[in-house]
Design a protein that fits this description.
Keywords: Cytoplasm, Methyltransferase, rRNA processing, S-adenosyl-L-methionine, Transferase. It comes from Melioribacter roseus (strain DSM 23840 / JCM 17771 / VKM B-2668 / P3M-2). One of its GO terms (molecular function) is rRNA (cytosine-2'-O-)-methyltransferase activity. InterPro entries: 4pyrrol_Mease, 4pyrrol_Methylase_sf, 4pyrrole_Mease_sub1, 4pyrrole_Mease_sub2, rRNA_ssu_MeTfrase_I, SAM_MeTrfase_RsmI_CS. It is found in: Cytoplasm. The protein has 236 residues and is of the alpha/beta class. The protein has two domains: 107 residues, Cobalt-precorrin-4 Transmethylase, domain 1 (3-Layer(aba) Sandwich), CATH 3.40.1010; 114 residues, Tetrapyrrole methylase, C-terminal domain (Methyltransferase, Cobalt-precorrin-4 Transmethylase, Domain 2, 2-Layer Sandwich). It contains eight helices and ten strands. Strands 3-2-4-1-5 form a five-stranded parallel β-sheet, sandwiched between helices. It has a five-stranded mixed β-sheet with strand order 6-7-10-8-9, with helices on both faces. A hairpin with a 7-residue loop joins strand 8 and strand 9. Helix 3 runs parallel beside helix 4 and helix 7 packs antiparallel against helix 8. The longest helix has 13 residues. It is elongated and about 60 Å long. The chain starts with 7 loop residues before the first strand and ends in a 13-residue tail after the last strand.
């Protein structure tokens, strides 16, 4: 008897806020796979319920990734297709899953992207800052190595993109006012959601405005390149 062909892993981008920001193909894939791998069943359940998708869910997060990866790989090798999703946006962009995909590649399992929303590209698209070349550093270290990373970024000649949480956005702006006081900073909060905000200014200016702002939610922080000003754009 011939050995059963392995299944496929689809890496599926899901909305970062507005549930309508999902592709037709993503909905089709989620409907057709045998099971879905997600970070949190409660979060993903809202999206799946909205589109009437009922599938077996398997949790993969930073705490159990090492243990759960082998279980998922075995199911896929038995012929089952699965979709990997994150709580929001494109999986593996500052989200768990890299161990799973790395092992799938090593096992010659077909891994297919189903592209779509990403907070990273959404923020860049509305920032007004150069986006032809940029560096994405995700979340900065919370303690050890944070100051060293900020010193390195202060010498960066490209646009810088960071993620930050509601608990540390004020701390980050204070740090930027020390390490990069003259840079233009764009802070995007809760993109695509009902109360999305985009703030622009020097770090000190944004700190002055902060008390009047709603600082709950997830943030994308974009920092202009070294020695760049908005006057650098000229008519061709």
């Amino acid at each position: 008897m011939a050995e059963k062909e392995s299944g496929k892993i689809y890496v599926v981008a899901t909305p970062i806020g507005n549930l309508q920001d999902i592709t037709f193909r993503a909905v089709e894939v989620l409907n057709n796979v045998d099971f879905i791998v997600c970070e949190d069943t409660r979060v993903s359940g809202i999206l799946l319920s909205h589109y009437g998708i009922e599938k077996k869910l398997k949790v993969l997060n930073a705490r159990n990734e090492s243990r759960t990866t082998d279980e998922i790989i075995e199911e896929v090798k038995s012929g089952k297709d699965c979709a990997l999703i994150s709580d929001a946006g494109t999986p593996l962009i500052s989200d768990p899953g890299s161990r799973l995909i790395n092992k799938a590649v090593a096992e010659d399992i077909n891994v297919a992207p189903v592209p779509g929303p990403s907070a990273l590209t959404a923020a860049l698209s509305v920032s007004g800052l150069p986006s032809s070349s940029f560096v994405f550093d995700g979340f900065l270290p919370q303690k050890k190595g944070r100051q060293k990373k900020l010193e390195q970024l202060s010498r960066e000649s490209r646009t810088i993109v960071l993620y930050e949480s509601t608990y540390r956005i004020e701390k980050l702006l204070k740090e930027l006012s020390v390490y990069m006081p003259e840079r233009t900073v764009v802070v995007c909060r809760e993109l695509t959601k009902k109360f999305e905000d985009v703030w622009r200014g020097k770090p000190s200016e944004l700190l002055e405005e902060l008390p009047s702002k709603n600082t709950k939610g997830e943030f994308v922080v974009i920092i202009s390149p070294l020695e760049w000003t908005d006057h650098d754009y000229s008519e061709s």
